[in-house]
Design goal:
The complex is a heterodimer of chains A (107) and B (118). Chain A is mainly beta. Chain A has no helices and ten strands.
């Protein structure tokens, strides 16, 4: 099973600041198989990024994904109030797994 | 528009079974697979299983093999997840999610809380 480790666990930032979230895999993951999700309290996850860097429909362009191999990054260029949430990376292999999540909170 | 609507909350005793439904609309049901993902209280996301709505092929998480069964009813565009021999650590919100075809889960149900308690 591929283990995904996200860092940091919590990111305390102010609106307007840049957020950089990391996802490291225990073995190489095809870029086509790496996705990012946003989850707000009491809601289902929402797909943000698939294929490591492609934005899902309706996702603002302040969200971007990058990376390859074992290291992937989600960047939010300028935080809006609605971006404070928990973010999960996911690898889509024969047995998909999720990272443990990074909480982006208001500083 | 695509919607995935799940059945309501359940309370079960240890050892019992639960069956959660997920009714899809707004797309051709048999063109996409369905995944099930659960989230224990205050915890992260755990993938459980995938089913092809086209031919019923399944793929289960190893730790749930033998306790979980996924089925679909193409006449009603509904997917089902049955979990047996429930334990307290099965208490979680269970989500269905459409397999997007680009190796991610693009539409999610609203979640079904399953509480296992004596």
């Amino acid at each position: 099973e591929i283990v995904l480790t996200q860092s940091p666990g919590t990111l305390s930032l102010s609106p307007g600041e840049r957020a950089t979230l990391s996802c490291r895999a225990s073995q190489s993951v095809s870029s086509s198989y790496l996705a990012w999700y946003q989850q707000k309290p009491g809601q289902a996850p929402r797909l943000l990024i698939y294929g490591a860097s492609s934005r899902a429909t309706g996702v603002p362009d302040r969200f971007s994904g990058s990376g390859s191999g074992t290291d992937f990054t989600l960047t939010i260029s300028r935080l809006e109030p609605e971006d404070f949430a928990v973010y999960y990376c996911q690898q889509y292999g024969s047995s998909p797994t999720f990272g443990q999540g990074t909480k982006v909170e208001i500083k | 528009q695509v919607q995935m609507v799940q059945s309501g909350a359940e309370v079960k005793k240890p050892g019992a079974s639960v069956k959660v439904s997920c009714k899809a609309s707004g797309y051709i049901f048999t063109s996409y697979g369905i995944n099930w993902v659960r989230q224990a209280p205050g915890q992260g996301l755990e993938w459980m299983a995938w089913i092809s709505a086209y031919n019923g092929n399944t793929n289960y998480a190893q730790n749930l093999q033998g306790r979980v069964t996924m089925t679909t009813d193409t006449s009603t565009s509904t997917a089902y997840m049955e979990l047996r021999s429930l334990r307290s650590d099965d208490t979680a919100v269970y989500y269905c999610a459409r397999d997007s075809g680009v190796r991610a889960f693009d539409y999610w149900g609203q979640g079904t809380l399953v509480t296992v308690s004596s």
